[in-house]
Amino acid sequence: MKSLSLSLTLLLAGNNIGFSAEPIRGFPEDEAKARAPFEQRLRATAESNKIREYMSRMAGEPHHAGSPASRAVAEYALAKFKEFGLEARIETFDALIPHPTQRLLELVSPVRYTAKLREPIVKEDPDSSDLNQLPTFNAYSGNGDVTAPVVYANYGLPEDYAFLKSRGIDVRGKIALVRYGRSFRGIKPKVAAENGAVGCLIYSDPKDDGYFQGDIYPKGPFRPPPGVQRGSVMDLPLYPGDPLTPGKPSIAGTPRLKIEEARTMQKIPVMPISWEDARPILEHIEGEVAPVEWRGSIPVTYHIGAGPSTVHLKVQADNATRQVHDVVARMRGSMFPDQYVIYGNHHDAWVNGAADPISGAASVIEAARILTRAMQQGWKPKRSIVFTLWDAEEYGLVGSTEWAEKHRDNLLQNAVAYFNSDTTLRGPMSIQASPSLEKFIEEWLRDYPDPGSERSLLDASGRRNFRVGPLGSGSDYTAFAHHVGIASLNAGFDGNMSGVYHSVYDSMRWFQYFGDPDYVFTTAFAGFMATGLSRMADAYVVQFDFGRVARFLRETVEDLKKNSKVKGLAWDSLEREIEKVGLSSRGYGQVMQSLESRFATLDKTKLKKLNKAIFQTERALTRPEGLPGREWYKNQLSAPGRYTGYGAKTLPGIREAIEAGRGEEAQTQMRALTEALAAYSERIRTCTRLAQEF
Predict the structure, then answer these.
(1) Going by C-beta distance under 8 Å and a sequence separation of 6 or more, which residues neighbour residue 212?
(2) Reduced to 3 states, what is the DSSP secondary structure of residue 492?
(3) Is 579 strand, coil or helix?
(4) Strand 175-179 and strand 199-203: pairing?
(5) Lowest mean per-residue pLDDT among 4-18, 292-306, 376-390, 624-638
(6) Euclidean distance between CA atoms 680 and 493, whole angstroms
(7) How does pLDDT run across 287-344, given as a tens digit for each residue?
(8) Between 3.40.630.10, 3.40.50.2000, 3.40.50.2300, 3.30.565.10, what CATH number should domain 6-96+322-538 receive?
(9) For burial by CB atoms within 10 Å, which of 41, 129, 359, 362 has the most?
């Protein structure tokens, strides 16, 4: 047996860097050691001037979904992928992508004030005056023209309305004024409507992302008084993607719902506003003084009565179908070409979007360049790698969801894992993932340097007992992890861009001053993702760790039992099945350990079959009927919460039933999870049997 393939030997020629002593699962020991100089070469190939080039081009002009500029950005990325020598194409979908046609907000009583509803030019930032900026609006708002008194409802959470009710304040027939934060923005009008409100205004309070936090833009990174956060108010916890084609791709021949039938469209008009426009409304709300935790930092006294502030709110969008352009590029594998790892980020932005999403999109392009350069030097990945840049993510994960729904059958059969990024800035590494990828990620972080220190990313995390965060929603991993059942991760260096999030000020100037000066972290991130992709694509055996899944299940059930207010639940069957997952994982691990030294000599046909069985274990963690009331979400381990939107709920079927006090439903969801885990254990045992055949 040769210790290295010829292709890897050629790549390492002349490189005398010492080998790592740490093991990497999925590789025989000698090849695992040889990856240290190879991966150092990948890191060294990442260039900050390339990142700057991609970002300057893609974030140079506003390019919201459905615009010619968004198509132009997609074509630029396509040309880059082809320039690197990859097979690449654009896939187009026709989805509901509304643009605003009328926006009006007037305080009509007890004084008159007309809201500006615009962000002014900042002379220091040339991009703030760009043409074709999308106006401040909330996508998928209900169309409406209403005049009503205003009620201040804090963050607009269910508990906020419960507090108002306890104080005798009736929201019915009123317009709710709520501040951004604590939940996904789409939850705010949903809860307002459930409490009888006829409209919803969402403003950015300076306590959360303005002068209370630090200097405001352009002097500092935080939101100026007229700054506004655009954004989608799709009811994301029901389903993402085109509201008119749930579960099906928005292509020719797919039946479409009528607008009024779309469950993810809001039923009342919604509008985002600045704190500058919110101030005169708040000034004229009377009633008792708001509790301390309800008070922001606008220089007014916050009250919680209904009125006498009365506003006229008019919102109209065209609810038009527009084209969405996904860019898909493929690097063909040499041993298992039909099996593939996907790396995706979105390319559309609410305006210029230098940080969100172009910092991450540039890293996708640079990771592709890094790995194609390695191929030119002789490296050949065993599995294929697919690089994707999604469109219309900002509207509700539209491009990625429609693509996943279109290719669902192929993904079920052949997708090994999905890697996602979005914004990446100067700051600590943040990763959320499927539990089966936790050990893989731990090894990856262990072996990659933190650009802000001399430690590894794992050491820099400060975690002695490493855990990855669970996957909720809010980015393009959602369809892959929660609908199809593909092991997924979401990664990025986590800086604070709250002050310009979804505004005209998310520009190249902001990024170069406050996001990632000198592009150190963005460049490091491209190398980081190239390293992880190469490991997943190169491993003889896919590096899932079933024991980490068992640990996740045990810890989550323990937490649920400890904090459950529902008494008399029967946990025994579920806990027994979790122990079977643990036993199955240990048996699998013992067999794989005995095979490790022979990985490179194993029969390739049998190895392909084994790998397919390994990555398809993840599909057993889904249920065809999905979660209660939201069948699109099929993953049983995590999902976005009904009233969090982005934030994850672990074991969501059980957890949300318990939180709502529905004991019978919780027991039903336990049975569903138990059945899923029985199927999961059986798939692990199948992997063990296949490994024993070598």
Answers:
(1) 206, 297
(2) strand
(3) helix
(4) parallel
(5) 4-18
(6) 33
(7) 999 999 999 999 999 999 998 999 999 999 999 999 999 999 999 999 999 999 999 9
(8) 3.40.630.10
(9) 359
